[in-house]
Amino acid sequence: VNYQKSDLIYEGKAKKVFAVTGHSDLIIQEFKNSLTAFNGEKKASVDKKGQLNISISTMLFKYLATRGIPSHWVKTDENLNMVCKKLKMIPVEVVVRNFVAGSLKKKFNKPEGEPIQPALVELYFKADDLGDPFISDEQAKWLKVSDQATLDSLKKLALQINKELTEIFPKVGLKLVDFKLEFGIDSDGKVLLGDEISPDTCRLWDLKTGEKLDKDRFRYDLGDVVEGYQKIFDKLSKLLEEK
Amino acid sequence: VNYQKSDLIYEGKAKKVFAVTGHSDLIIQEFKNSLTAFNGEKKASVDKKGQLNISISTMLFKYLATRGIPSHWVKTDENLNMVCKKLKMIPVEVVVRNFVAGSLKKKFNKPEGEPIQPALVELYFKADDLGDPFISDEQAKWLKVSDQATLDSLKKLALQINKELTEIFPKVGLKLVDFKLEFGIDSDGKVLLGDEISPDTCRLWDLKTGEKLDKDRFRYDLGDVVEGYQKIFDKLSKLLEEK
Asked: Which residue of A116, A136, A143 is in closest CB contact with B122?
């Protein structure tokens, strides 16, 4: 099937979302080259970033599907449009952490890279005007983000996804430090993984050298962004495209 | 029994804690007149504050005991020393909120005074150097603050205490907006309410006028501190001393 973009439904910081002609249950995600950090305070546009992210996300969504974890992903076409199931998004970012970094390091003054066992799952309320604050289950329910059963299933899914991803990344010389997921409810009422899984949403370090290959290169001016993302793509595609 | 202060074990921002001669299972809490806010940035000393807080705390601990909720409180002597069971304190502040105020208002940009139904329970990690950050259950377990069963019992106790307190405060013309509790484990391994319950640790508004009678008077320069605390004492003692 060839899916055609219709109206722009939503434009975020890193993606455009379109309706699909004749398919009210689908959307098309277009990945932009723009990068933002620190709640939009730092901005840039980087050539090839969008196409690397859509390629990496596609590989990971496909891989997770083979491991019994479905997502909204339907297909990625030759124009690098990602056709996805339309979800009613749950306004929460689910973060999984295997090693201390970023805001967790700052909040608790822990050494960067300290292992976290078992992995730590956190919820952040998606609200740009509030700076996406960290929330507890109780706050999520008060904010009517979700009920407890849905929160429990988000966390369980996030940990299952972490289990799968922490099995493949070390095989290609990468350490999965932490990552952010978003979920939504499909037309059958099922909780599905949405959004993307890319170096914009994961911290990935070179397993041997510790080099940071993800969006932290942009946040903290650690080196060429596309070079890092390209390394992740090259390593992952060697493993996942062979399958 | 007349309990005698021995060594100073700990001096906090608002209390001194002493060992008790011949009673290794007890402590004596002495309430100071000092007030601090904003993680110690604002400081003052207010005559009579300590004695009002110990009197209010005593009334509330005694009342809760009659309602089947024991605390560390043993007796308050004529020198206004509070003799308490020695607890192994759990390094977490348990906050219960019935109406929006304070940091919750700021974090979520909600109107002050908006009712919260059911009451919201929050955990804050007791760590002065980190500014007592808000934490989730998962973070509490990662930080080895407590196990899940203990966290569950803290929250359950906090909500029971809230149920009791929200029954008495409106009877004396006060609105219990929110409050902070601390818990510890006694020598039998039982979770007991510790610390204090006072206008330093509760937000209490006049039910009719909305006047703030608690520590927010000090935080935001809203009026004479002791005058507010005295009003709370007078109202409460009318109800609780009659019993």
From this structure: A136
